[in-house]
Every structure is written in structure tokens, then in C-alpha cells.
Amino acid sequence: MASCVFYMFFIPEYILILVVTILIDYWAAIGIENSAIPATRKRYLILSIVATCLVLCSFKYLNFLNANISAVATFLGLHYPVPLLKIILPIGLSFHTFQSLSYVIEVYRGHQKAERHFGIYSLYVMFYPQLVAGPIERPQNLLHQFREKHEFDYSMAADGLRLMGWGLWKKVFLADRLSPMVDKVYAAPLNWDGLSLALATFLFALQIYCDFSGYSDIARGAARVMGFRLMSNFRSPYLSCSIREFWHRWHISLSTWFRDYLYVPLGGSRVSNLRWMFNILFTFTISGLWHGANWTYVIWGALNGVYLLLEVKLSDMLGSRLSRIARPLLFLNHFTKILFTFTLVCVAWVFFRARSFTDAWAILSRCVGDLHITRMSLNELKLFGQGDLAIALLGIVLLFVIDSAQEKVHLNAFFKARPAVVRWALYCIFGTVLISQGKFVNANFIYFQF
Amino acid sequence: MACGQAESGTIRQLIAKVLALAIVVSGACYAIVEFTPYLRLFGHERVLYIALHRAQQKFPEAKVVVLGDSVCCQLYKPNSYRKEIVSLASNYGVSLLGQRILMDIWLEHNSDAGPQDIALVVNPESFRNSLNETFTYGYVIKPFWCPEWRNRFDDVESRRIKAFRFYWLSQFPYVRISDWCPSEIPSFAQEPHFKECHLSQISIYELKKMEESARRHGVRLHILAGVVRESTRTRDFGVFKRQIKEGNLEALFSEYFPSAKYLPDQLFLDDVRARIHLKDPEALGRDALGLLKLAGR
């Protein structure tokens, strides 16, 4: 009921869409489990996938398809009378459709029993902490938790509140502070020089990470307060030494979803070389399209696919030769890899954030061709807001310190082991800094639009 | 104090601890706002708090005081020291109500030996401010609707402030120190007296108050346009000029249109904010609008 109310807070009528997808998948999963005939089981699966994808595509991609057909028709000199529709994307559509698809597929594969209790299945789809922006849960992790008895667990609730606090800090202290700086530059990229564009891109990389991981932490923390465990969605992704590692650390629930339900069924890596390359590119391209109905997202996804292909191929070719040379410079090698990976990721982010391919290309061209550190270009940086930029950079340093520490130490346990007076002092300082320096106006989450 | 013990307790104890933390943090926020220059140094609306602080100081060598919006702030930075020009420039969000209060505070603290000229440098768009924008809460209600300055609001102004749903929360420590503003904004369009044109009714009201205040203190009030985009030169300001005439503000606006300094559009970051001084800090000089010459007349 609380989840229904939460969802209806945005556009109440859209609860019907959620109800329809829940009904279809609930019925399909039971149909799959009840039937012993493989063809019938497959029919239920296909029906569920088609129906769910139809709902997703109608709201999310219809206008995109329409606009592209119109552009082709115009190019060919043909008349295309179909107008663009005014469709508001239901909040969380991309997330809960994927979550319910994973349920049906797992039932089909025999890894999950179909949930017969309609209320529990509905709750699995619309559990409010993760309904609008994930993590995209697997039925094996979440469904059984709704059947278990939950009593108040002080330690878990305290952990949950701390996680929510940390997520809130990433969101309102960092992400929302960086947002206007990035928006200002990306709204009119031709008005800015290379240094400003490069800085804005770097800031966007941090903004999207803090925004999305901040939301995930709030969602996981809220669930934990109630005694539920949701999967971790981020694991210090900007400390990755390779693109492959990055995709094991960034939006883990989505990347594993695409790996298990698209890449592996296509054959994964157990196919010919050419077919494997196609599988990688296709999976990443679709992943890009999932993020939004725009060619820039498609390019972003495809670019990440190209990165991965090149990385695998180059490491196969150069392999142990480089390792032997680099061994004496182990630390430098590690740091260089992190920096190089981060740079590649930032280049891809330009396409993700830019309004169009033209803008993205202009930004990258200027970042390469017009990157001069002069008095004038440094003066331009003042337009970012000196005070806010300085505070943001301090926050970014703190973020990297904590992310790095989490690689080596279980920070929550470390924190809980400190004396109570230290913990409470930190809570007070944290709370005061958050309230005084957080940006609480117009705080929308980036991934809500997906 | 316990160290390293597993956390345990009841839900009531957890809620009590959260509430205790909220009270302690509230106290800390209150102390920071009341007893430190935090709002001037780190606050979200610090440009206004700097102006408010300076308005209460004495500047014996000053020849002209300048008030204005963010464009004026770019030309005359409030926290950079100029002997002859005292800048109390702030932001569009302050509205003419805030500018009037700043001017009154300055005049009360500098009535004996203060400058004889006050310049109000305002972009044409700034006159539209009708106290019905999101940042009205942050730039007018939070800083001015406090016990110290609340008596400067008359009934008309108080009614407009109280139209904001959460105006009463504005002095709560959490709200005062943060940038939170209610998303609901009152609309005054239904009120027959407050038809919004180029010059909002509240702007006309405050300009008359400023004119009267300046006359009472024996100072000259100049209203100037500042730097504007070249494309503004051909814009039709018929409605604006008509309202000036209907409001009997012609004397007050006599210098406004001639004072506009037109710069090429590409030197502007957006519709109002210039960036020439960032490309070339000396381009506009230390007195871009010639205020000292104005004061010397």
C-alpha cells in the first residue's frame, strides 16, 4: 500500500500501467511453472517479454522512432504525417520492467519458483525504495525476504540510516552542487573554451556518479531500516583499472542484467570471434538505448563496447610483455591505469550528457584542440562559481578518500568500532555541514528520467 | 564510553537518538548563524549578507554608494575595497524591497557623514520581480523577515511576505542556514492591484519609498541601467516607459535609459550576465559606469 501511494504521488493514473505489467508477468510466470510442455512455457515467456517490452517501448521509444522515420522521410522527400505524441514517461518504467522480466526469465530457467501470492509478487515489483531508480533486483535475492518475518533490528536500522545519510550527502552536497556548473557549460558549449569544457566533463562524471550512487544508497538504506537487503549497485567505479573492471563496478544491477539476459543468451564469449565482438557491441548499444531515446545514448553505449573490445584485444596481444616491463613501476602502473580508464569513461560521458552529437563532437574537439591553461582560461573558471567549485573539489577529494578506503577496509564496521563520542561528533559535524552546504532546491535525480 | 560494542536497542531508543541528533544539529546551526560570520562567508546568499553587513558600517571616504543586482555585482564587487565607491550590490532575487531596506539601513548608519549620491544599478528585467519567485524566500524572507529587520516591512509588504506558505519557517535554524525554499510560490496575478507588466507594482511601490527616503536624508538617488546586451538597444520598451509615466517616476528614471552601456551579445554569458571582465579583467575598469563623475556633478 505504501509503495502504491509512493508511486501515485507522481502521476496517479500511471499506477494502472504498473498494475497491467504486474498482472501480465504474474500470470505468465504461473503459466510457465504450471505447464510441462516446453512450447507452452516458451509461449508464456515470449508473451511476457513482448508485453513488457511493448509497454516500455510505447512510452519510451515511440517518439524517438517516429522522429527518425520522419527525418528519413524528409530526406527522401516523402510526406510523413504522423505527429509526435505528448507522452510523459512513467517514473521508474525502465527499472521495474527489467525487474519483472528478470523474474519471468528466472522462473522459465527453473532458478526461481513462481510467486503464487499476488500481493507479495506486486510488492517485489513495486517495492518503493528501489521502484524508481533501482537497484534492479533479482527474485532470488528479494522475493524470499517478503516472506520472512522482520523484527526490528537496531544494528541494521542504524546501518540503514548511516547509508541513507551518506547517500544524501553525495546527492545534495556534491551532485546538486555540480549540476548547475555542468548545465551552464553543456547548455551552450560553443561559448566555452577547452579547459572549461574539460572541467565540466570531469564534474559531470562526478555528478552522475554521486547522483545515482547517492540514490542507490538512500534506497538501500531505506530498505535496510525496514530489515530488507538490496544489492549493492556501485563499488568505487572510478578506481577501476580497466573498462572491464569499470563495468563490474558501475550500475552493477543493470550490467549484470544485460550480461545474464542478453549477452549470455546471444552466446556470450563461447562463439566465434566475430560473433563475440557483435555480442559485446550489441549488448552495450542496447544498454545505451535503455538509458534514453536519443542517438547520443546509443553512441555512448556503443563507445563503451568499442572500449571493451579494444581492451580485450590489446591485452591479448601485448599481455605479459607489458607486465614484465611495468613491474618495477607497479604503483605508477596502477595509478596510470586508473587515470587512463577514468579519461576514457569521461570521453564517453560527453556523449551521454551532450544535447546532440554535434555538441558532443564540438566539446571533444575543443577539449583536445583548445586546451590551454592561460590567464583568460583560468578566469573563465570563475564563472563556475569559485566558492562552490572549491567546496565541490574538497567534497570530491573526500569522496575518493572514502571510496579508496572502502577498497581495503569495511568502513561501516570500522566506524562502528570507534568510541561513541567520536561517532556522535562525526554525526553532528556531518549533519551540520549537510544542512548548511547541501543544495536542497530543485533536487531531481538524473536516473529518474530513465 | 563504549568502544567497539555491537549496536543494540529498541526502536524507541533509535528514534530518541535521531531526535537528539536533530536538536543538537539545530542548536549548532543556530549558533553558527547568530554568532559567526558564516552567512557572509559561506552562506548560499552570501552576496546579500555581505551587503547587509557593509550597510551597517561607516565609510568616511566614500563618495557614492551603489546598490543593484548581480550585473552590478560584476561591475562593483561588494567585498573588494574601494575607498570612494561603497558597493552594496547583491542579486536580482533581493528585489527592490530588499534594495530599499539596504538603502535605509545604510542611510541610518551613515546619515551624518555619508555620501550624497546613491546609485541603483538594475538590469531592465530586474524590475519585473514581483516577490513571487522561488528565490524570494532565500533573498528576501530569510534575511529580512527576522526580528532585527522585520519592522521595516509595512502592511502592504508584510501581506506579500505572508502569502508565502512557509514564511513562518524562514527563521528556523535548519532553514535559515540551508538553501531550502518552498517550491510553492504565491501568485499575485489575481489581485487587481498587482497586474504584472514590465515594472511590477511592488517595484513601483518600493521605488517611491526609496525616492522619499533619499529626499528625507538629503541624498541624490540615481537609477542606472548598467551593462546590457547590444540586442537590447532595438527592443521596444514602450510598456516600461508608459508605466514610468503613469507611476510619476519620470524624474527618477531620467538617467536610466541614457546610462545603458551596450556591449556585444557574445560578451554575455546569458541574457543578463556579462563575461567581458573575466576575459579581460581591466576591460571595464574600476568604475565601469563612471559613478564618481556622477557623484561629482
How are strands sequenced across the largest beta sheet of chain B? Answer: 2-1-3-4
Q: What would you report as the Rg of chain A, rounded to the nearest angstrom?
A: 23 Å
Report on the biggest sheet of chain B: 4 strands, parallel
SSE succession of chain A: HHHHHHHHHHHHHHHHHHHH
Number of strands of chain A: 0
Strand portion of chain A, in percent?
Answer: under 5%
Instruction: Name the helicity range of chain A.
Output: over 70%
Q: What is the helix fraction of residues of chain B, given as a range?
A: 40-55%
**What is the global morphology of chain A?**
globular
Distance between the termini of chain A: 24 Å
Rg measurement of chain B, Å = 22 Å
List keywords for this structure.
heterodimer, A: 450 residues, mainly alpha, 2 domains, 20 helices, globular, B: 297 residues, alpha/beta, Rossmann fold, 4-stranded parallel beta sheet, two-stranded parallel sheet, 12 helices, 6 strands
What does this structure look like?
- The complex is a heterodimer of chains A (450) and B (297).
- By secondary structure, chain A is mainly α.
- Chain A has two domains: 2-147, no CATH class; 155-234 and 354-449, no CATH class.
- Chain A has 20 helices and no strands.
- Chain A is globular.
- Chain B is an alpha/beta fold and 297 residues long.
- Chain B has one domain: Rossmann fold (3-Layer(aba) Sandwich), CATH 3.40.50.
- Chain B contains twelve helices and six strands.
- Chain B has helices at 11-35, 38-41, 46-55, 70-75, 95-109, 134-144, 155-162, 173-177, 201-217, 238-246, 276-279, 291-296; strands at 64-68, 85-87, 117-121, 220-224, 227-229, 261-263.
- In chain B, strands 2-1-3-4 form a four-stranded parallel β-sheet.
- In chain B, helix 3 runs parallel beside helix 5 (95-109) and helix 5 runs parallel beside helix 6.
- Residues 191-196 of chain B have low confidence and may be disordered.
- Chain A binds chain B through residues 152, 154-155, 157-158, 161, 184, 191, 376, 379-380, 382-383, 387, 416-421, 424, 427-428, 431-432, 435-441, and chain B through 1-4, 6-11, 13-14, 18, 21-22, 24-25, 28-29, 32, 38, 42, 46, 134, 174, 177-181, 266, 269, 275, 278-281.
